[in-house]
């Protein structure tokens, strides 16, 4: 918690502490419920340790009085000192257990929140991901959950502790030294109000500093991401200057804030000790007139510092709770989203692979005003190979996304094996469709795991067989670790063509009835393309296949080509027929490509 002291709350992080907002924190509290026993036990230890510590000033006062020979329950300076040590020991034992118990509760409940959140995230529909940036979602599962973890492990406990200290302290003082307490209570609030006003102003300035720093950091991020561009334009000096200008602005604002902070701190120190002087002065005169003992004055001063400390702490806690409410709100928002419909159990029945689009029109939910597909009509019989051609942005990939039920089909009908996709069990439908995309992203892990992704229980023989059919075995078997070679971040980097062949092996193992190749060879050089094409030909055997290809040479042999333009099918037929059509759309595409 300490590291967050003094950092300003972002405007969007602030939440009023009203009933409705507090109930949001309550909504997250359901994750703590399973561990409520430990939580309340922790609270109990916390109460014990706070109350034990509160007896400390009282006994310390008695120690001073014992020096001037006054009598108490136990006599002698040494004995009272031992009692003080005893109090410290007991309170440290209590403190240990409350820290341990709260950690147990918060670690486990935060794990549960993260799991629930992740499960929810992966089950949300594509529409959700269209609206959110990945970075934002990651910060939900990291930063926001950590914020709540702080809240449930320390902030709530602190709140509880400060309130106990404050109330018990004031009540105790009112009881033992009423006159001096009233005097103290009269001076304290004035200080607190002044400190709060000042504090708010300083927080605003330190937020400005943070904003400037963030702006400067963007420069670093941007340039490092596109370092090639920077270097190719010889822009190193320009960027360095830009960065140092940004940093100078940070220094300027930070120094302004530091000026105010300095003034604030010296004021607080002056006022605080001024207050102490005033109280001591009044206390000393009470001691002089015999109304109070020296020991009582000492314990009074100690109590007052306890109370002062908890008032200062409460301000901090208030800000923390405001932030925590913001975090809960954002988490609940995700947890309350509706997941994709049932991916529950289903009967695996064989799928033939007939595909039909009946008068399908479609707009992406994020851009409802643009009709990406307009009355698409197509019919692909099981086992046929067809191609979708057309300029980029024509709507080819969108057709595939509808087939996969990534988005709901609202106008017209998409059918697989004569049954509308809307009626298909999501998991069953998708488990029968294989995709080889243009950019294959492999998961960090071994090549074996990547190939077996669609069939985790595949045997070694099946995996090798698939790799062989995909033309991937040649390079995999050359790695010293073979199938167990790690790929991705900390492993071997595979070339585009090699990644593609791993993806093909994965699809072969999945053995889907329907296969989709979305520009699968578009980003490969001629040599890899030949190898990948060979593997693809093997993969396409006995499957309904939709090929989306940029290079028209790869789709000459298909049964039928659909040519798309602006979301409409403008031509369809075999390559030989379409290519010779005078002024035909496809014929023009072909001409353009050969002119390249
Ligand atoms: N997730 C999306 N949200 C909104 N619009 C999209 C989305 N994906 C694609 N589009 C738009 O839909 C149109 C068709 O895209 P797409 O089907 O990917 O074209 P193609 O695959 O033929 O190049 C484009 O104008 C594109 O900008
Ligand atoms: Mg596309």
TrEMBL record:
InterPro entries recorded: AAA+_ATPase (IPR003593), ABC1_TM_dom (IPR011527), ABC_transporter-like_ATP-bd (IPR003439), ABC_transporter-like_CS (IPR017871), Type_1_exporter (IPR039421)
Compartments in which it is found: Membrane
Membrane is among the record's keywords: yes
A UniProt-annotated Pfam family: ABC_membrane
Transmembrane portions of the chain: 39-60, 80-101, 159-176, 182-202, 262-285, 297-318
One GO molecular-function entry: ATP hydrolysis activity
Domain of life assignment: Bacteria
UniProt protein name: ATP-binding cassette domain-containing protein
Membrane topology value: Multi-pass membrane protein
């Amino acid at each position: 918690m300490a590291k967050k002291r003094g950092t300003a709350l972002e405007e969007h992080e602030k939440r009023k502490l009203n009933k409705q907002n507090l109930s949001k924190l309550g909504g997250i509290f359901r994750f703590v419920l399973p561990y409520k026993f430990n939580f309340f036990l922790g609270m109990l230890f916390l109460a014990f340790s706070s109350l034990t510590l509160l007896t400390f000033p009282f006994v310390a006062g008695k120690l001073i009085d014992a020096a001037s020979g006054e009598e108490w329950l136990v006599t002698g300076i040494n004995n009272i000192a031992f009692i003080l040590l005893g109090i410290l020991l007991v309170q440290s034992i209590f403190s240990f257990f409350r820290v341990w118990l709260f950690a147990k509760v918060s670690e486990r409940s935060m794990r549960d929140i993260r799991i629930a959140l992740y499960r929810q995230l992966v089950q949300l529909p594509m529409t959700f991901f269209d609206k959110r940036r990945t970075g934002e979602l990651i910060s939900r599962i990291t930063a926001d959950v950590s914020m709540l973890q702080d809240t449930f492990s320390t902030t709530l406990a602190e709140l509880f502790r400060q309130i106990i200290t404050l109330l018990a302290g004031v009540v105790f003082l009112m009881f033992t030294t009423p006159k001096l307490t009233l005097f103290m209570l009269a001076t304290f609030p004035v200080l607190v109000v002044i400190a709060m006003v000042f504090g708010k102003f300083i927080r605003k300035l330190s937020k400005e500093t943070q904003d400037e720093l963030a702006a400067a950091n963007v420069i670093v991020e941007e340039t490092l991401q596109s370092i090639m561009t920077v270097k190719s334009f010889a822009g190193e000096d320009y960027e360095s200057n830009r960065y140092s200008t940004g940093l100078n602005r940070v220094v300027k604002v930070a120094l302004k804030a530091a000026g105010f902070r300095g003034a604030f701190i010296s004021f607080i120190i002056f006022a605080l000790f001024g207050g102490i002087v005033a109280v001591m002065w009044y206390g000393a005169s009470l001691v002089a007139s015999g109304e109070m003992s020296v020991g009582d004055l000492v314990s009074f001063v100690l109590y007052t510092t306890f109370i002062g400390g908890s008032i200062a702490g409460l301000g901090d806690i208030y800000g923390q709770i405001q932030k925590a409410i913001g975090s809960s709100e954002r988490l609940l928002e995700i947890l309350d989203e509706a997941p994709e419909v049932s991916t529950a159990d289903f009967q695996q029945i064989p799928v033939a692979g007939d595909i039909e689009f009946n008068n399908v029109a479609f707009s992406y939910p994020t851009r409802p005003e643009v009709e990406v597909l307009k009355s698409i009509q197509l019919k692909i019989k099981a086992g046929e190979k067809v191609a979708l051609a057309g300029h980029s942005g024509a709507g080819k990939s969108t057709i595939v996304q509808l087939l996969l039920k990534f988005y709901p089909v609202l106008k017209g009908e998409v059918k697989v094996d004569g049954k509308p996709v809307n009626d298909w069990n999501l998991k069953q439908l998708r488990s029968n469709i294989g995709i080889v995309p243009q950019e294959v992203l492999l998961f960090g892990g071994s090549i074996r795991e990547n190939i077996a992704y669609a069939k985790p229980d595949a045997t070694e023989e099946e995996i090798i067989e698939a790799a062989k059919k995909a033309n991937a075995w040649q390079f995999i078997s050359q790695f010293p670790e073979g199938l167990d070679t790690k790929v991705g971040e900390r492993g071997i980097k595979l070339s585009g063509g090699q990644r593609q062949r791993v993806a093909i092996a994965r699809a072969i193992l999945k053995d889907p009835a329907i296969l989709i190749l979305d520009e699968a060879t578009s980003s490969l050089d001629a040599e890899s393309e030949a190898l990948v094409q060979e593997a693809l030909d093997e993969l396409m055997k006995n499957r309904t296949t939709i090929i989306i290809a940029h290079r028209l040479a790869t789709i000459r042999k298909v049964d039928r080509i659909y040519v798309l333009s602006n979301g409409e099918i403008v031509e369809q037929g075999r390559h030989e027929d379409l290519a010779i059509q005078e002024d035909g759309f496809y014929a023009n595409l072909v001409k353009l490509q050969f002119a390249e």
